[in-house]
């Protein structure tokens, strides 16, 4: 019988073997990590469609990690995450059903309340899944960085703009890789081994963000990924990864949890930098 923490243990095993898996099984691995809260209520055909593989690939994946088949592997997720997954899943189903069935005209105020509720659910999930060790590692990367580069595209671009604005209130040299004029390559090419790239992206990952991540690795810089999967294209090779599972309403994913995490990252960095300044000032040195 699966015990508390069995899903984490399974995902850790998957992460260790990820590079040796065939591409189809890598797709399954990334999906399981990303949708871990919903696996217990999904059918094998639904999971296969989400992975863009045949259902038999999901079965092979389960057997690859010691289970007799998909149902036995799914039971691990069910035992660990029943309470967390069920409300989220039923909420998503209700929203989609309202859209599909067109049940009258929904007042704008009601739509707003549903968006707010989805954002609140996302923040609750962020608290439950918060990894203090990874967060501390992310802050330490930024403390040691000579330059901080930030990249995000399309819907997450606003997050990149905010974090750059916030970080510019520290003494760090901060650069927004905006791609203005199509100049992603030019803006990221000066990144060096003592620098950090903050890369923010969710599936389908922005090709510009992945490109900047590759350049950072090539130049021996550190990469801090803010994404939804440690096994995904962005998080897999990052030096530190902060995971965010945004909730959605009316098929639109919120950004509430991501912006909250970025604000927390900035505040924690500013606090540590100020502590370092205080340590260099001897008591009474500037007293009249």
From TrEMBL:
Pfam family, one: SIS
Record SUPFAM superfamilies: Homeodomain-like, SIS domain
Keyword Transcription: yes
Domain of life: Bacteria
The name this protein goes by in its record: RpiR family transcriptional regulator
Stored PROSITE patterns: HTH_RPIR, SIS
Source organism of this protein record: Dyella nitratireducens
Top-level taxonomy: Bacteria, Pseudomonadati, Pseudomonadota, Gammaproteobacteria, Lysobacterales
Domain SIS residues, every copy: 138-283
UniProt keyword list: DNA-binding, Transcription, Transcription regulation
Residue ranges of every copy of the HTH rpiR-type domain listed in the record: 8-84
């Amino acid at each position: 019988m699966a015990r508390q923490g069995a899903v984490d243990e399974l995902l850790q095993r998957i992460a260790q073997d990820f590079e040796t898996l065939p591409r189809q099984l890598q797709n399954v691995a990334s999906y399981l990590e990303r949708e871990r809260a919903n696996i217990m209520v999904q059918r094998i055909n639904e999971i296969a469609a989400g992975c863009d593989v045949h259902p038999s690939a999901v079965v092979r994946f389960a057997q690859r990690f010691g289970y007799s088949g998909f149902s036995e592997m799914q039971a691990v997720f069910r035992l660990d995450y029943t309470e967390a997954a069920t409300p989220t899943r039923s909420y998503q189903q209700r929203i989609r059903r309202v859209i599909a069935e067109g049940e009258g005209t929904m007042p704008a105020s009601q739509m707003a309340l549903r968006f707010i509720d989805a954002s609140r659910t996302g923040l609750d999930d962020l608290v439950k899944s918060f990894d203090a060790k990874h967060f501390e590692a992310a802050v330490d990367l930024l403390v040691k960085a000579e330059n901080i580069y930030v990249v995000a595209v399309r819907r997450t671009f606003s997050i990149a703009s905010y974090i750059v604005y916030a970080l510019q209130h520290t003494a760090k040299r901060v650069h927004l890789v905006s791609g203005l004029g199509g100049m992603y390559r030019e803006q990221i090419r000066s990144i060096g081994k003592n620098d950090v790239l903050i890369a923010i992206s969710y599936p389908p990952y922005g090709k510009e963000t992945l490109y900047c991540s590759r350049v950072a690795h090539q130049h021996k810089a550190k990469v801090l990924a803010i994404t939804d999967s440690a096994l995904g294209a962005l998080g897999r090779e990052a030096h530190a990864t902060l995971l965010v599972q945004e909730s959605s309403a009316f098929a639109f994913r919120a950004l509430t949890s991501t912006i909250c995490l970025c604000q927390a990252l900035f505040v924690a960095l500013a606090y540590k930098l100020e502590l370092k300044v205080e340590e260099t000032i001897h008591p009474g040195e500037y007293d009249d």
